[in-house]
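Our collaborator T.R. sent over the components below with a one-line note: 'Predict the complex.' Nothing else. No constraints on interfaces, no templates requested, no preferences about which chain binds where. So this is a plain run: every listed entity goes in together, and whatever single assembly comes back becomes the starting point for the next discussion.
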Amino acid sequence: MKVQLNSQPRLNKRLQVMIQAKEVYLSSDIPCQIRGCAFCNQESDIQLENPIFMLDNEILEQYIDLIEQSNINNIVVLQSQVAYFRKRQQQSQYAQQMINLIESNFSKKIYVYQDEFSIHTQNGNPLILLAQWYNSHRQFLKTELDLCLLTQNYQMHQQCKNLNIKCFTIQDYVKLYENNDLLDFLGMDEEFEQNQEAINNQFPYIPVEECVQQIKQGLLFEGRISIDRNNIKLARIFVKQFQLEIKINQQNRVLHGDRVAVELLSEDQWEQQQKQKEIKFDEDDDDDGNNNTHTNDTSHEIMSTSHLQNLFRKVQSQNLVPYGKVVSVLQRTERHFCGHVENNIFVPADGRYPNFILKHSKYDTLQDKKIQVQFVDWPVWSDKPLCKLKKVLGKAGDMYIEGNVILLEHQVEIREFSHQVLACLPIEGDKYRISEQEIKRRMDLRDILVCSIDPVGCKDIDDTLHCRRLENNLYEVGVHIADVSHFVKPDSAIDKEAAHRCTTVYLVDRRTDMLPKLLTENLCSLVSNVDRLAFSVIWIMDDQANIKDVKFGKSVIRSVASLHYQQAQEMIDNPNDNSQLTQGIRLLNMLAKKLKQLRTDQGALSLASNQVKFSFDDETHNPSDVRMYQLYDTNSLVEEFMLLANCSVANQILQRFPSISVLRRHQEPKMKQLKELQILMNDLGYQFSFDTSKLLSESLDQIQRPNDSFFNKLIRMITTRCMNEALYVCTADVDYPELYHYGLAAELYTHFTSPIRRYADVLVHRLLAASIDLESLPPSMSNKIRMTRICDKLNMRHRMARFASRASSDYHTYLFFKNRPQQIDQAIITGILTDKVTVMIPRYVLEGTIDAQIIDRMNIIIQGTRYRIFDYIQVEISVELHSFHKKIHMKYIKNNN
Amino acid sequence: MSLKRQDGRNLQQMRNIEFKLAIDLSVDGSCLYKQGLTEVICLVQGPRAKTQSELLLIEYSVSPFSNIESKRSSKFDKDYSMFAENLKESFENLIILDENGKSEISISVCVIQNDGSSKSAVFNAITLALLDAGVSMKDFLVSVTVGLDQGNLIVDLTQEESKTAQGELTISYQSRKQKIDFYELKTLKLQQQEMDQLSKLAVSKADEIYQWMKEEIYQIKQKQIDQ
Ligand SMILES: [Zn+2]
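Returned assembly:
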């Protein structure tokens, strides 16, 4: 057995380079997996058949759609290739698609050869060495071997020629062997002339290596391009290293999300930063959402060079905004774009991206379609980037297709569940019955009056409750959650798929499930009058809702009623209803109010969201009404017990697994923004302090205006926007006091109550089951590094899901107002910008801006009339959709009286 | 399909073991022991006339640069002094000193580099250094580390594997008596059946190591005789 020593430089936590030795043990027993190879003689589920292909990274990255649709069915990929793509899976949709192809593995036979451990693929290009080794198995096969290597690399072609390995470029291969329709997936080729002149304002890029040098010397700055959603000409980078924002005035062919090198312009071209007082209304839509910045050691080194020191001093003291130009793209954004076609121009749906030139053989077939494309190049002579077709999505304007576009643009997985995933479901399908044996292992709670309370039409019911009076003024309260982890076994195909999707995504008119329908709407959904498996939390409480005891356990329940909020509210309010169930709900309601009081005393915030609800016209399926959600007491009833269950579970799992638990934490709010709000509130004569969440909560309670219930809600919405996002964390990374959940004022918090639609909850169920010795913890969950990575992914997916929901809501708002031109409604002035004000229409929770003359930070003049902030005015509404975000045009209507 | 570990080894494959005896001629016995990237050096003085009350002195140390990445913790320090005690106990029972109790032996052992399974490397290095010093022993003590990682039984864990393993068991084993001497189990949670499997695997691997070492030492002795 041969040993090879590798030294791989890597970065440690403080970004210092560490060189770590690593041993690799090479072996010769890794099989080729060709069907019937007498040399390797391996029985396995993968048996490769002619023709067999090997593909280089460029092809796997750039032509994956083509591969998917081609007759290339037997593929050998290298373990090192998979590792390369897996590493970039999060940032790159290209890599993600490649990993999907390998993991789904149902249409193609893909064999991952462990080249890193093979004695045959060392010291040279592993693809060529492997092809050579495969060819040497010819003599052990009964049939002729047809092995083909696809690469775009000229050198590799030469080598293959010498070694008698069949080798093609993708273009040649497609022309020789495939259907001509695939040619459209190849993109540009020779036809475009290379030697055209650079157009104005564009110049060739500095080579990447040179940039890296200059960045180190502090001559160039590195950052990710962020382009304004409403104005593509506005671009900026944020240099994390120096906490410095640079505006870009010469974009030189960049796309939103590119990692670029920027050179500063001379100072006379900079701009004085206007001291703007504005309450930022748009949620921070930074895609990586990664706001924690480290200043590392090297930054101090660079900082000490004198020219930079002067620069930073000047920027800070004079409030300057430095301007720069892009001199090189270090790494292009690796995402796909959805949009539509106008002649040979592709118009992306996301307004942060420019129009592309699309090459296609039949433009007329694409005219009214939504399509997905991939970036190819942006030559210096072109004012637009070039792209190639990936996929035709369907007819533009079709509500379903538009929904797909929203999902794709937010990287939501919309493929069907693969047959491997479906194979994990119980074979009896919807005839599944719980076995007697399973019931014996569990608490049998089927004789307890358990019910669920959800929104109208909820099909995936994951929580139910019960309450009964015991002796001595004590109560038994139970929360019973769908036992999803009973059906989703660790590391099974269905588990991996759920871990990939992370969450169910809700659009206004549809749901994209994390788990197959059979589980979501049937076996796991805790509907009434059927036996269902549950994971229960049962407390003993006194009449002040103090917890005397808590226990956890798996159970069987039989819900007696699937109620919706309004129904449950009516039962509580109906004095003639004294059924046992109603009494139970009344007790729950009473205890929920006590719990809420306890939480409020602790300093929990109650904030408002701007979520709206649509009603649909049955015939046209167009939205017929938009309203704020109506909340009943019963909403809060369910919420209180879910919060309590989550807290109890968080305590339990952390105690048992201090270093690998998955919790949810909410850090302190953005103090700068709260400070601005405080000044404004004080000016208006309200007390406003936010030193603790309790003080903030109390401040919010007393901000009231007579005859205006919306005002308080509005201030809560504005406060919500000062909050940080709550995040999943693996407790390996965070110490105890930092696990605090600010908004809920909870020492520890986690997600346990919605396992049907959130993967985090599935993980927590497993931790909880292991903590009470019901099941052993799956091996993969004891890996801290892996758990941390999973949490990052959960956070990213949840953020994307939220943006997708908002985009969908915006789209439907747009449809609603499109059919109702010139609506006039009342709006409240919510903020003052430099030359306009932001206003909100309470009825639809719609926001927009109106031109105004600013007097000071409280007073303004609109068309000759003087107003103060938070005054009401009349506006006319019209809506236009731009880059998913509704663009609200509001016109001021002068009040005649 | 052949399942490979992070470093390309098969599940129950040891890393390569190399050792050199008599590396320091100023002492009575010495050994440089390498098991993959884990490296231990051991020096033995004695048996010689007694100067203190104790028969056996063991000095166990870990080089401050030994750990490939993680740093020391207070937990580590506690573990550290405990292990020195364990070593002393194990070898005290094994070494045959003259009947009058007039001689003593001192052992100094140091982990130069730790890439996992360092405790078993320490045991093995001491045994070899004692052999080099010509100290007579009642039995041949060998040691091995095994573990359960991602549901697989593996042997000779690297540092990386040690971090992710659900359970890690180190034993020292008296090969002739076929008796487990030192037994240390680090685990998050294992079932009885899994623990039994681990112990069984550890014993069979320890025996393999014993057979191999015996052969190696025989070869070395042969060479010395030939010269
Ligand atoms: Zn073969």
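Summary for T.R.: The mean pLDDT of chain B is 86.
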